[in-house]
């Protein structure tokens, strides 16, 4: 009986560790007229939970290889959004404002994503 309980505890701990390594949280700052680009590499799908923590709008786009950008909408200050991003799809967060944008990002799924900034 003690071995069964110990085995259960170990299994639950391992599952918790695996789930923890498949998530990522970040607060990201985006300069005026720049974009934060996430996942411009080969990757599996993931869910992005976002919150605009700043004072300017953030436009959210996705782009698949060989296709044009597709708008998913605009996050107003304090607004939250949740987006399912498919494999090998780039997520782009654009700051078109005159002040620095601040976005809270929580990812669940593939977290081996490239990150970078580009001019708008």
What does this molecule look like?
- This protein has one helix spanning about 1-20, and strands at about 25-30, 35-40, 45-50, 60-65, 70-75, 80-85, 90-95, 100-110, 115-120.
- With about 120 residues, it is an alpha+beta fold.
- The strands form two sheets. Strands 5-4-7-2-9 form a five-stranded antiparallel beta sheet, with no helix packed on it. A four-stranded antiparallel beta sheet has the order 1-8-3-6.
- Strand 4 and strand 5 (about 70-75) form a beta hairpin.
- The longest helix has 20 residues, at about 1-20.
- Mean pLDDT is about 85; it is low at about 5-20.
In short:
This protein has 1 helix and 9 strands, in the order αβββββββββ. By secondary structure, the chain is of the alpha+beta class.
What is the topology?
Blueprint: H1 2-21, E1 23-30, E2 34-38, E3 46-52, E4 58-64, E5 70-75, E6 80-85, E7 89-95, E8 101-109, E9 115-119
Antiparallel strand pairs: 1-8, 2-7, 2-9, 3-6, 3-8, 4-5, 4-7
Based on the model shown, name its key terms.
single chain; 120 residues; alpha+beta; Jelly Rolls; 5-stranded antiparallel beta sheet; 9 strands
CATH class categorisation: Mainly Beta
Number of domain modules: 1
What is the strand arrangement across the widest sheet?
A: 5-4-7-2-9
- According to CATH, the fold-level topology is Jelly Rolls
Number of strands: 9
Series of H and E elements: HEEEEEEEEE
Q: Could you say which overall geometry the principal axes of the C-alpha atoms support?
A: globular
Q: Residue-averaged pLDDT, rounded?
A: 85
The value of Rg in angstroms is 18 Å
